[in-house]
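quick q for whoever's on today - can somebody do inverse folding on this one?? i tried earlier but teh output was garbage lol. C-alpha cells:
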C-alpha cells in the first residue's frame, strides 16, 4: 500500500479510471453482440442503425485512449465487411 499522499491519490484515480474504461468496453462488447445477432437474423436494416452506434462508441473510446485507435479502425473495418457480406 502506498504511503505518500501523491501515491495514494494516484492509486485512487487509477481505480476510478479503470472502472470507467471497463464500463466503456463492456458497453461496446454488448452493442457488437447485438449487431452480430441482427446479422444472424438477417435484419440488415436494423444492423445498419446499430453499426452507426458502434462506430460512434469505437471513435469515442479511441479518442479517450480506452482502446488503441488502430484497434478501433480494425474493428470498424471488420464489422463493415461482415455487414456487406451478410447483405
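ok took a stab at it. sequence:
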Amino acid at each position: 500500500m502506498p504511503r505518500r499522499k501523491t501515491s495514494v491519490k494516484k492509486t485512487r484515480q487509477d481505480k476510478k479510471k479503470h472502472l470507467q474504461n471497463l464500463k466503456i468496453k463492456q458497453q461496446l462488447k454488448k452493442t457488437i453482440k447485438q449487431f452480430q445477432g441482427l446479422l444472424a437474423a438477417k435484419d440488415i436494416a436494423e444492423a445498419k442503425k446499430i453499426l452507426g452506434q458502434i462506430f460512434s462508441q469505437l471513435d469515442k473510446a479511441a479518442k479517450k485512449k480506452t482502446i488503441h485507435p488502430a484497434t478501433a479502425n480494425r474493428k470498424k473495418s471488420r464489422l463493415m465487411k461482415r455487414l456487406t457480406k451478410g447483405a
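fwiw The CA atoms of residues 33 and 39 lie 10 Å apart. also The chain has a mean pLDDT of 95. so keep that in mind when u check it
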